[in-house]
Amino acid sequence: MEFAKLSEDELKAFIGKNADYYIKRFKKFEKGGSLSWNWYAFLFGVLWMFYRKMYLYGFSALAVIFSINLFISILKIDQVISTGISLWLWIGFGMFGNYLYYLHVKNSISKIKKSTYHSDVILTISKKGGVNKFVLYFFSGITIVYFLFLTLSIFLIKN
Description:
It contains 8 helices and no strands.
């Protein structure tokens, strides 16, 4: 399915927050190419994928990261090389995150339109799309708890 066959209303309904940002990038992808920088994808990687409801991509990325880390630990690869590999992964998220999201949006809307027989397709699209705020709250909570335990452990070690 070509992006041009998707209406802007469908895209906005599915994407939700920051739709204009993504639609602008998606139009460039239709003209060719797959590179577009996304700071959130770079900084948050897999978490960004889960936030954007890209669960298959997120679990696939976790499997790749786990496999690479396992490979690195088995072969006892130098820390500098290990850090370089990790950096390339994060750069990859930043460079290809928008394109992966483009593929996700395009395929998801296509599936919804094929399986929805009622007149309010836009409502169904908006319910299936958007962001998963639970991921944001959950990992923010984990981060806060982690730093609380870290602070507590530092305090206990000093005393």
